[in-house]
Amino acid sequence: MKKILIIDDDIHIGNMLEEALKKEGYGVLRAYSGTEALYVLSLEKPDLALLDLMLPGLDGEDVLLQIKGIPVIVVSARADLDDKVKLLLGGAADYVTKPFHLRELLARIAVQLRSENTAKPASVLEFDDLTLYTDTGTVILEAKEIRLTPTEHAILKLLMQNPSQVITKSLLLERISGDTPDGTESSLKMHISNLRKKLRQVNGRDYIEAVWGIGFKLRSGQ
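RE: above sequence
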């Protein structure tokens, strides 16, 4: 079931959207402020978000900048063309002006989710709830961006390109040789350890396992 996060402090509009979305077979999450939206996103990864701009506390524009890895449809009373252009260029997948026709909004949601269901471009690697955008170097885990060094990024990319295989130490050392001049097994272990720690800090899970005497591979949570 696809899950949609409604971020809107207007209870009437939120209830109306929730009822309509559930009739269409979607799961629904709710957030009534920008801060609450980020908290929900830290716990769950919906497939799409509907975002109002006029929110208490953290406003919608600030929230939009922190949502990664899922399409966001802005649903706002602001009708100014410059606002629409700014938000679309700033990361919004679509913009719907209030008051809106429910059928049109549902159609726009379906289009975004259909686009998500198509084959992922080569620039996107996924493993469980971990996503790596190879064109920008961005790594997203449970809606949080993980800051990696170039070496850590190269290691994770190679592992995610071969999610079911054990990657040998020699191949990993070859790939990171430009970032690790000494090119030793001890330096590789240090980078792996730092990478595992950064991922584990998000949810306590270890995504990388050592295969004794051979190398490393990704560890599925399933």
